[in-house]
Every structure is written in C-alpha cells, then in structure tokens.
Amino acid sequence: MSPLIMEEDDLVEHINRSLNEEEEFHFLRFEFLQRLNIVKLQLDLVRLKGRFQREKRASIQDLEALESTLQKYATAIRNYQFLKGKAALGKAETQRRRLLLQRYFQSRVKDQFHSHYCSFHDAEPRADPLRRALMRYMPSFLAFSSEEKMSRAREYSEGKAPQEVSVFVDRLTRFLVAITGGIFLVVPMIIMTLHQSTTKSLITVSVCIVLFALVMAFGVRVSNAETLISTATYAAVLMVFLGVNN
Questions:
Q1: Could you list the residue range(s) of the whole structural domain that residue 213 is in?
Q2: Quick one: which of 17, 86, 88, 160 has the most CB atoms within 10 Å?
Q3: From CA 42, how far away is CA 45, in angstroms rounded?
C-alpha cells in the first residue's frame, strides 16, 4: 500500500473517531507559523519601502507588488487576530489532543504537534461571573437551554457546562442581583438604626460601599462608567439616610 493511501486511511479514521467520540472539533493555532508569516511580509514591505525611498520612483510592477503584499499582510493580521480570539484548551486537553494526532500521523510528521490547541467558541466570556458560576454548578437540566440540549446532546448527557445562557439562568441571575441590591440597602439601614452611633454609622457606610464596589467590579459585567455611577449612587443613598438618621 502506498504512503498516500495510508495517509488518506489515517485521515478518514481520525475524522470518524472525532465524529463518534467528540462533541466539539478542535484545531491547532500554529502560533509559530502565523508569526513567521507576518514577520516575513513585514520584511517584504520594509524592503519595498526602502527601495522606493532610495530610487524615488515606483513602476507599475512595483505598485502591483506593493498592493498584493499589503493585502496579504492585512489578511495575515486578521487571520492571526481571529485565531487568537478563540478559546485555548487547557494543559491536560492539549496534551491529549497532541497524543491523538501523534498516534495517527507521527510516522509522517515528526513531533510537530506542539502548538496552541483551540476550540471554535470565542475566548472572551460572554456571560458575567455570576452567570458563568450558575452555568457551571447548576444541574444540567436547568443550566442548558432547549436549543443547546439538542445541539450539544452529548455534553448535556455528560453533565458538562453549557456555552449559552439559558432563560432560567438569566432570570435567576436577575432575581439574585435584585435581591442583593435590596440587601445592600436594607442591612446597613437596620444596623445604623439600632443603637444609633455616629462612629458605627460611618463605619457601616464605609464597609458597605467597599463591599458594593467589589460586587460591581467582580460579580457583574459592566463598564467602568457604569461601575462608578452605581457605586456613587449607592454611596449617596446611604449618606442621605445617615444624614436623616442623625
């Protein structure tokens, strides 16, 4: 049997195994090759720039070469940025992927599978920390949406975390945030009302503002401006209550 036929057989066997055993397909990012390609195009452009500046002229062929190289350069940067935006696999899963590829293709590619392994979903989490925590630790039948139960049936049956925020998780998060906001207002007011003391009230206000700021910074995904406005508004409400109470 020729090497080409053997390689085709290994390819088909590898893909069949992937379809039967894996819910998601993963790929190599080829960090070295991506950077090598970008730097090579950079050098080509630098040479063209130097030649134009020395000769103070550019022929039609030179301009065509410049246009083609610039297009390749921009495309290479976009491609690299796109791949960098995909979620990287953990160390254990990366090792398993590398060993799988070596198992099928090591005889033709000598130990060249050391690279970053990625999945197709974006690296940047779309959900805030609270939603991600609920998605990870809640039972699968509550965390998964109806659509994701059908599209990712294998991972749903295995109890893995979903990738999309279900309606239940979203509404539960909103309810928890609303309850937390009420607690942040009611608890300090009760503390300042019972056994009134200016020192105790000032300490209570200061501690609650710091805790509220921490929750806004790490528990809810909002912009810097929204975090500042929310914290300032909360502090103003407590200070108004403190002034009325005194």
A1: 169-245
A2: 86
A3: 5
